[in-house]
Amino acid sequence: MCRLSKIGRLRAGLATGVAAFAAAACAGDNTFSSGTTVNTSTDVTVDIEEPSAAASTQSLGDSLLVSARVRAGKGITEVVYQGFAVRGDPDLGTDEVVPRFTTKIANLQGVASDTLLSRFLMPTADETREQVFVVVSAKDVDGAVAADTAQVLIGGTKVEVLDIQDGQSVQAGLSLSVRVRGTDPDGILQLQIDVTGAFEETIIRSFNPPVDSAAMDTVVVIPDGTTGAISLVASARNTLDLLGFAGPFTLNVGTAGAGDTQPPEVLSSASSEIRMELKDPVNVTVSGVDNNPGSGVSRAGYTVLAISPVRGDTLIQSDEQIYTPPRTGNVVTNFQFTPFNVDSLSLPDTLVFEVTGYMVDGNGNCAASVGGASPERLPCTTLPGGQVAAQERSGERLVRSIVAGRTVFLPAGGLILDAEVDTIRRNLFLSNHARDQIEIFGLQSEAFLSSIPVGSEPWGLELNRGEDTLLVANSGGTNISNVYLGPPVNLNPPYDDHVEDPGRRIVTPDVVLFDVERRVDDIGALRYRVTFHPDASPPGFSDRPQFMAVDSTGRVLYSTKTTLAGDFGTIRRACERGQHRDHVHAPQRPGHDLRSHAGHDRRDLQRSARVHRAGGGIGPGAGLGRGDILRPLERAQHRVPRYYVRGGVRGPGMGGVRRGLHRAHRPGDHVRRVDRPPEWRDPRD
Fold first, then answer.
1. H or E element: which one contains 9?
2. Comparing C-alpha atoms, which of 175, 218, 177, 220 is closest to residue 326?
3. Quick one: DSSP state of residue 346?
4. 341 Rama class: left (phi>0) / alpha (psi -120 to 50) / beta
5. Using an 8 Å Cβ cutoff, are 36 and 148 in contact?
6. For every residue of 500-552, which 3-state class applies, written as one string?
7. Distance between CA atoms of residues 271 and 484, nearest Å
8. What is the pLDDT of residues 321-373, one digit of tens each?
9. 338: buried, middle or exposed (CB in 10 Å: 19+, 13-18, 0-12)?
10. pLDDT tens track for 532-586
11. 260, 283, 448, 678: which one has the fewest Cβ atoms less than 10 Å from its Cβ?
């Protein structure tokens, strides 16, 4: 029965020509079957090329690429792209058409007669997992309309079939390599391959417990004497009992030709890291297909020459995969080898690898490849050791540096910004900036231990002088964590209760430096002038800790990273609770490593001070330049009146210059003398 109402609702709001297509498209009960092509004129044709059979599953919320080849003898005027679902039961009258993608119309005005058009369709807000019909319709200058239909599963398991091409030819009596891969965040329970046509076969692989990514590498044995076409479909079922499909792929089965003398086409590639450790692999992929009709691929392998330019010697290594019975269709084989011909006592070393891939068919015809962008049939030769290589051709060259070391990946990823070695407990501490934690790698066990949560964005690491505490600079905040590591001895079993002591967290507040000048004006009034460093307008000093160091006296020093509000990095002294705040300030360049400053002692800092006294106080000559170190002059305290800051930290007198320099104040605060009648003066006067 023809349901014109359904088609009409689908095309509501479209152009008149598309509505005409809707009426013409109603020819039979299964209007929306996959691959349906509708024509009102033999002069107009539409063929959907994308989505293809191998990409029939779409993730929820993703846009959909639709490509179609459109031809019209008298010129194309309009091409319409639609994506919709059909819900309900037609027999009960509850069926409806629900748009799942926004409709797009391409106006060509009759200037094109043969073109490939591609459009991205944007998804609607509907998150229902269901089958969606993709329809591309075209109209020519005479109003003739044609359309093509494809199907896409929205929200189903994504399924891919590798190494199979639609329409390829295969040989009877051989094995067909099939690789299927599926992904689904809800978990995959089953992968299945169904073969129908000239012969039938079903291959099923189940997964318990479910996995979010699954693969099946198998072979389909084509019975001897089989001829004709077969159809291959791969499917996957997830935990919600929803299916995802890839296919169908149509393959043509023929008999192997007698007296096969043509070798397979081969493509090889080799890849690795530029700097390799002794256990790092070189990956070799050899792929190819035998001629049609042929005897199939019976062997695939590689040969590599490891050449040492320094020592002038060469070693050869090879490996191969044997297929019984031979494989038909596209055959892909992966190999790995680790560096050899290496002088492990003289690292780093340099090696040149020359890699050749090859394939041999069932009749012994051999072809080689030395890399490149396309398959080739280079003649094979046999080396004195029996290895297969390309005749009169060098293999694909990889020049690699072999270095000492071993790479270990983080358990849960992240970004490492600093490392600290604990030689007593044989642990390596790593600051994981991205995950707000400290990673612990056991140097003896060569395994990661439980991580330590700390503050925001940990950066610099340093052991304290007693080597029982790890100091962590939390650059995302203004504090330093103290992580207790246990007594500084190698315990058996080792101390593993590594946690931060929250009561010992060191706060690193921002500090404003200022000079105070006391003077008597022309009428005899006593006034104070306060100069802040830096001034009230940005930029200013940064207060976020970055690198850390502990000097020979046990003082904890840290640098600060620059920010938008504070682009002057500083070097400071950290004080735990109860200690006197005697910070050291030294403007520094961004990213400067503090460890080079850890050896400065107290006398060095005093010798580099540039604080000048004027009128018993701190005079305007105390300019703070980049690279200067500012320390208070303790012996000047008896000459400076006791004062405190109004609008800043309220309390008793601050005890002179030493505390005045290092208490946080804001520009515009008022200074009041304690030893005279209350008289507020603006320090900016």
1. helix 4-10
2. 175
3. S
4. left
5. yes
6. ECHHHCEECCCCCEEEEEEEECCCCCEEEEEEEECCCCCCCECCEEEEEEECC
7. 45
8. 999 888 888 889 999 999 999 988 888 899 999 999 999 998 889 999 998 88
9. middle
10. 776 666 667 778 899 999 988 888 999 988 877 666 777 888 876 555 444 444 4
11. 678
Cα within 13 Å of Cα(391), Cβ side: 7
Which residues are paired to 245 by β-bridges? Answer: 235
- Phi and psi at residue 564, to the nearest 5°: -65, -35
Amino acid at 353: F
Span 372-392, average pLDDT? 91
Q: What is the amino acid identity at position 105?
A: I
Place of tokens 């009041």: 672
Cis? peptide before 348, omega within 30° of 0: yes
CA dihedral 472, 478, 479, 480 (to 10 degrees): 20
User: How far apart are the C-alpha atoms of 439 and 431, rounded to whole Å?
Assistant: 6
- Residues 467 and 484: their CA atoms lie apart, in Å, by 9
Residue that is written with structure tokens 């051999």 in the block: 366
3-state secondary structure 565-628: CCCEECEEEECCCCCCCCCCECCECCCCCHHHHCCCCHHHHHHCCCCCEECCEECCCCCCCCCC
> In the numeric block, which tokens belong to residue 636?
């000047």
Highest mean pLDDT among 92-96, 394-398, 522-526, 529-533: 394-398
Residues 6+ apart with CB under 8 A from 527: 518, 519, 520, 521, 681, 685
pLDDT tens profile 135-163: 999 998 888 899 999 888 887 778 888 87
- The span from the CA of 402 to the CA of 343, in Å, is 9
Paired residues of 545 in beta bridges: 560
For the record, the structure tokens of 621 come out as 């000559």
For 660: left if phi > 0, alpha if psi spans -120 to 50, otherwise beta; the answer is alpha
Least confident span in 375-379, 401-405, 500-504, 647-651: 647-651
pLDDT in tens, 193-219: 999 998 999 999 999 998 988 988 888
Tell whether the model's pLDDT for residue 645 goes beyond 60. Answer: no
- CA 205 to chain CA centroid, Å, is 30
Spatial separation of the C-alpha atoms in residues 164 and 186, rounded to whole Å: 27
| Cβ contacts of 612 within 8 Å, gap of 6 or more | 618, 619, 621, 622
